[in-house]
Design a protein that fits this description.
By secondary structure, the protein is mainly alpha-helical. The protein has one domain (15-22, 47-178). The chain has seven helices and no strands. Helix 3 packs antiparallel against helix 6, helix 4 (78-103) runs antiparallel to helix 5 (121-137) and helix 5 (121-137) runs antiparallel to helix 6. The two termini are 28 Å apart.
């Protein structure tokens, strides 16, 4: 792992892993109804701070993608192997979470599958994807940028939880008592 990896343009750079992820996600979205897509991207009732945190998170996500585009991959390194495993776990977890999201009935908090152990399995899985690709390219800076992006999304999630409490009332409060925000202990 390096702090600042050498930037090069190449076919075997980290971008290929994000391209695969986003292609699969795009294909998945095509299988969803308009209602599911709208619920996935519902930002109508966001506060100004939620919008700001989301934008800042996306800026750092974009910086992370810049690292992936220009950083070559060493497929024989231990960092690549560790990163690839983390990336696969995150990718699989993300798609399981969005499939469960798709199956969930409208008008109720989602509490199927991964949503029984995390209120935000999609965000947790995206962190794993970003962390995995950071290891794939062997960059500590990319790891830091991925965590900064996640911190901004955390503040957005705090606002989402307030809105979900208003929207679903006691059923969401009960869900919050039973299920951790991200994982068992936090």
């Amino acid at each position: 792992m390096e702090i600042f990896p050498a930037f090069e343009i190449g076919l075997l750079n980290g971008w290929i892993f994000m391209l695969v992820f986003f292609l699969l996600y795009g294909i998945f979205l095509k299988t969803c109804s308009k209602e599911v897509v709208n619920r996935l991207y519902d930002n109508e009732r966001w506060t100004k701070s939620q919008s700001t945190y989301t934008k800042l998170g996306k800026i750092f996500g974009f910086i992370h993608i810049i690292f992936l585009i220009f950083t070559p991959v060493n497929i024989l390194s231990i960092e690549f192997m560790i990163g690839f495993i983390i990336y696969l776990i995150g990718t699989i977890g993300f798609f399981i979470a969005v499939i469960e999201f798709k199956k969930a009935p409208l008008g109720k908090p989602i509490n199927l599958g991964l949503y029984k152990i995390s209120r935000n399995p999609q965000i947790l899985a995206l962190l794993l994807v970003s962390l995995g690709t950071s290891f794939i390219i062997g960059s500590w800076t990319a790891v830091i940028v991925a965590f900064i992006s996640t911190v901004f999304f955390h503040f957005r999630i705090l606002g989402e939880e307030k809105r979900l409490t208003e929207q679903y009332g006691d059923s969401y409060l009960d869900y919050k008592k039973k299920v951790a925000r991200y994982f068992y202990f936090f």
